[in-house]
Amino acid sequence: MKPESDIVLHLSGVPHMAKPMEGVFPAKGYILIAMLLLSSGKRMSRQAIATLLWEDASEGKASTNLRQLLARINRSWPQHEPIFQAQGTNLVAGPAADRSDLAEIARWRNSQVLAERVAAIHLVKGDLLATLDTGGNELSQWFRGERERFRQRILSLGDDVLMEMTRFARAQKNEIEEIGERMLMLEPEREETFRVLIEAYGRNNNLEAVSRTFELLKAMMQREFNAEPKAEIVGLVRRILANNPKPSTEVNHQPADAVGEFNAAKESEPVIVRSLAKLPRVALLPPNPTMGEECDPLARVLVEEVANDLSRYRTFAVVAPHSSFGAVDLREPERLDALRNRYLVNSFMVPGDPSLALRLELYPGREILWAAEFRIGGSDLPKAFKLISRQIAVTLASKIEHDQLKRMRADPRPHAYRHYLEGKLLLQDCDLPKLRRARREFRRAADIDRYFAPARSANAQTLYQEWLMLGANDPALLHQARLEADAAISIDPGDGAGYRMAAVVSLNQRDFDTASSKFLEAEVLNPHSADLLLSHADALSHLGDAEAGWKRFQMALDLNPFPPDYYWWSGATIAIRRHDYRGAIELCGRMSSDEPVLRALAISHGLLGNKDIARQYGARIREMYPGVTISDIVNLAPDRKIEDRILVAEGLRVAGLT
């Protein structure tokens, strides 16, 4: 993409040369160059050109005038390369014609890169050859047709650019305004332009700009047409203002002295990628039901939450509950051995009593280090969670972790914690209806206890997941998720869950610097969370550091060696950006179904040159997502480096996508 300063010839707005030249460049020279650039194959016959430019002259006189015009252009053209070339009876746009804004606009508007399409709009300084006399009837008709086509192409491009740049609720206000100014400059009375601007400001959550643009539309309609805006635009404004996402509670953040060591750690980049080999490992097993009774599902979720909470400590590593629970659920002792645990936490429900009994054991050998019972009925749930986490940590970490154990955490109210656990239960294998029900539970928890941070970060997770399920086309959900994550951080700066969700949302909003920073903060707080390591690994691959991402992916697998399928999906994504296409295919093969990774398989086989296999996957992608294009898929992934976007596009092209 050439910088605008390299463009010599300007044909939109007032036609002019941006470089010094000898004499005055002839007005008909601007028209001639525009004709060549806009014609099929960038060529026209001399006779057709002469007839258009000198409609009233005889054929001989018109030909003479054309020869004289070409001579004047050659004398005054400031570049060494020719601006046109003769090919028999035709004239063809020469290499130097690419130094015009019209040529760059035509090239950039079809680009797959948003920045280049935005640059194309910025080059538009007005209508095509706006200040030139249109001449005779034939030339006037050419001007009308070409100017109308030029305007419609730019306006259509502006519509698309506004949609894409606000898709992730993060466009700068001045960027939207600049696009809107160019569009309204070409056609001030176009109601559709006001509509797309209102939609763009709405997706960007700029309600003041929505209201202001609507008022400008109403004034224009009254002034020009003595009419009101269309009913659908009025309805659009009402929906945007009514559905404006806001945080459910206000949070005043006051830094706590108890998290001083974490605030100090943020001042310098932490060394996160560390060896897990020297750390003792602990696995929490799911509660065992009493004979003849079913285990309360909330007790299972409670133990899982304890495992996740313990991942914040540095002197031991906690195996992800997905793997430790799975080893018991599948009744495969060899899986339990493969987890390489030093400690096990067993639990079971006490018969006839809403209590959970736990034992901390050495493994192997099953020497009991401590045993205790915790009531988990009603108002006892939050207290049980805190006591279980503390007792395990005290035993394992002893004095090394003692100071961290004293860090104050907000104790949720009993009913709030109950709703929180109900929401977590719904999230374990959820479709869209369950996801929304889970969010209702988290909202109830937050409404009951406004300082219950886990409910806010979990709410952010549901909003982000719904955004993904709906095709990543509702930026209001993404904006709301970011607000909820920020609220969780404000409430409890010592909990990594809020930082993790803030990082994930920032990455998908293409706020890459914030995403990188938040992931590092999350890892400072929860250094041994397998899910966090996986999220950070995936993010690093999109940020352009696939090797660092691969290291974290391996660490996540070390803590969760029998992971859910999405681990392999993320690993395949990272492998592609490491150019390890065979590795990506192997990871995809570990999934129970290949449907979620059809794109990864198509890309990997395409880049390996396996055209027939790649096209088979490409056909399945088109069948599953009718009308999907390479651009749709490339733009969905938050890749920071253009090289990664080109890589993905090339693999999909080989797979037969357009």
Write a concise keyword list for the protein shown above.
elongated, 30 helices, alpha+beta, 658 residues, 3-stranded antiparallel β-sheet
Structure explained in plain terms:
This protein has helices spanning 27-38, 46-53, 59-76, 101-108, 114-122, 137-165, 173-186, 191-203, 207-225, 231-242, 260-266, 297-310, 321-329, 333-338, 381-397, 402-405, 414-426, 432-448, 453-469, 475-491, 496-508, 512-525, 530-543, 546-559, 565-577, 581-588, 598-608, 611-624, 630-636, 642-654; strands at 9-10, 16-17, 43-45, 84-87, 90-93, 281-284, 317-318, 343-349, 355-362, 368-375. The chain has 658 residues and is an alpha+beta fold. The strands form 3 sheets. It has a 5-stranded mixed beta sheet, with helices on both faces. Strands 3-5-4 form a 3-stranded antiparallel beta sheet. Strands 1-2 form a two-stranded antiparallel sheet. The longest helix is centred in the first third of the chain and has 29 residues, at 137-165.
